[in-house]
Amino acid sequence: MRAAAVMAAWRAAFAVPVLVLVSVGMFALAQASPFDPVRQYLGERAAVTSPEVAEEIRRSWGLDRPLPEQYTAWLGNLLRGELGDSRTFHLPVAQVIAERIGWTLLAVGAALVLMLAASLAVGTYAAWRQGSWIDRLIVGGAYANEAAPVFWLGLLVIWVFAVRLDWLPAGGLTDAAAATVEPGDVLRHMVLPVTVLAISQSSWLVLYVRESVIGTLREDFVIGARARGLRERTVVVWHALRSALLPFLTLLGTRTPELVTGAILVETVFSWPGVAGASVRAALAVDFPLLAALTLLGTAAVLLGNLLADVAYTLADPRVRTLGVA
Amino acid sequence: MGMPVQARAAAGVLAALALVTVLVPAFAQLDQSLVNLREAGLPPSLAHPFGTDEVGRDVLIRSIYGLRVSFLVGLVAALVSMVIGGLVGLAAGTLGGLADRLLMRVVDGFNALPHLLFGIFIVAMFAPGAVAVVVSVGVTHWTTAARIVRAEVLSLRARPFVEAAISGGSGRLRVARRHLLPHLLPHLLLATVLMVPHAIWHETALSFLGLGLPPHLASLGNMINDGQRSLLTGAWWSSLVPGLFILVPTLAVAVLAQHWRDRLNPRRRSELNL
């Protein structure tokens, strides 16, 4: 337990400078870009607004101050939770995030559970049946899936299940006619995006579990278990799979950036009202306050993913637990 | 022993695609802004093997043009990230000490960032276009090359010929240029080849989101984006076919890379029978 706590503290301490550097980078990029917030604010009125008025707005927003001062003011507001207003949604950024983050967590969480369960089952089965036609099919499918862009996969699934078969809705959170958010309706709308997100992230996991289980199936303790006459299923699941599982906790943590990427594309394809899809709309409208907040949020999510993976690994592996952090 | 069937097929597919992307534009001219509403939304037929899109353009020919554009953008982006990564890796490997540790922490930090999100941020701040796409991919993907080059430099530095050159009085730059670079190039080349499909993926993803290349340009991401609406009315070809032009070459490169790795590591090949 103590090792895990120390590690978590270390990781959290490492996250702070990363987030600060990311915010500096974003601020510098915004400064270097041709994007002018005053011009954007004025919109079509920019042509008829006198330069003095524009200068006045600039001054009142503090844009004439030195850059370090502007940056600390921005960071200070950020830390106080004053994230500014989103142009895209005509709402405070904090409210946009609060309204949407639950849907993203719901979809991503469901996709993670589905991905883990399905990949473990499929990968273990492929390893057990190594070399058979079904194993080849699984490996080939995993490679093809890895090569398929997730937005393309999403459109393919929409075409098959929403357009041709008409089994499930093609996008959105609820039916267009629905006045309230009913759980059953949301569930029906969730099936396709969650499945696509899970499938798009599962290739590496299936291949990893397969290789890992094949490796442990050759280990002495597995051969020993077989020699003692244990049932094949007991051997594969309780001996081979269990010890093959450990490293993948770490791997899972290193894959969180991909999960964020997948969420962005899947939410966009299926018009899912989450925060990941909102980043695309913010980018299209050059909505700096919202885009900056969401980029920081995405980075924080990745850092948190790494942290959780490391803590889980420390708790799960007795060698790390007793010998301390390597 | 020759190449296994899969690797041979993958090489064949890549060669055929390369040939087609070079030859087709030479024979079939494409007017990027042409609209032919009389032939809009036609299903696949002999005249149009993959149908026509919502404004009557041949999907197959446009996909081939799109592959060419995406490949060029992807190649440039991959080269940019290789140059950045190569320089950082070379600096980390040759300088060593504190500089090395600092640079590698930066690499770790960059590696942990959600690439597409940062790509989106960069593109949004610098007005979508080919340059913004190249910058956004290059800036977020140089870490792989940096790691490869650093590791290779560290192992090269311990070899006798490098030690001999240093004790013979060669300066740092001369050692880097004459003794390290020739050994690093093959590794960088392989890393670039592997990076190109990923860069293409990024270009198409950004274009698909409306944040990539200009909308009238025949690029694979733009085509998938344009075809989304007609997909809902059953016209699958205008968005799903361009996607195949991303999937097939990416898969071919992955199969070849696997073959390469197996060749370098025969133990793995015999044990896992992949």
Automatic annotation (TrEMBL), chain A:
Gene Ontology process terms (BP): transmembrane transport
Membrane topology value: Multi-pass membrane protein
Main localization category: membrane
Transmembrane portions of the chain: 101-128, 149-170, 190-209, 290-309
Name the record gives this protein: Peptide/nickel transport system permease protein
SUPFAM superfamilies referenced in this protein's UniProt entry, alphabetically: MetI-like
GO cellular component: plasma membrane
Keyword Cell membrane: yes
Every ABC transmembrane type-1 domain range: 101-309
Family affiliation: Belongs to the binding-protein-dependent transport system permease family.
Keywords: Cell membrane, Membrane, Transmembrane, Transmembrane helix, Transport
Organism superkingdom: Bacteria
Source organism of this protein record: Thermocatellispora tengchongensis
Cellular location(s): Cell membrane
TrEMBL record, chain B:
Location of the ABC transmembrane type-1 domain: 67-257
Keyword Transmembrane helix: yes
GO biological process: transmembrane transport
Keyword tags: Cell membrane, Membrane, Transmembrane, Transmembrane helix, Transport
Membrane disposition: Multi-pass membrane protein
PROSITE patterns: ABC_TM1
Transmembrane segments: 69-90, 180-201, 235-257
GO cellular component: plasma membrane
The keyword Thylakoid is assigned to this record: no
Subcellular location: Cell membrane
Protein family: Belongs to the binding-protein-dependent transport system permease family.
PANTHER family (alphabetical): ABC TRANSPORTER, OLIGOPEPTIDE TRANSPORT SYSTEM PERMEASE PROTEIN APPC
Descriptive protein name: Peptide/nickel transport system permease protein
Organism, as annotated: Thermocatellispora tengchongensis
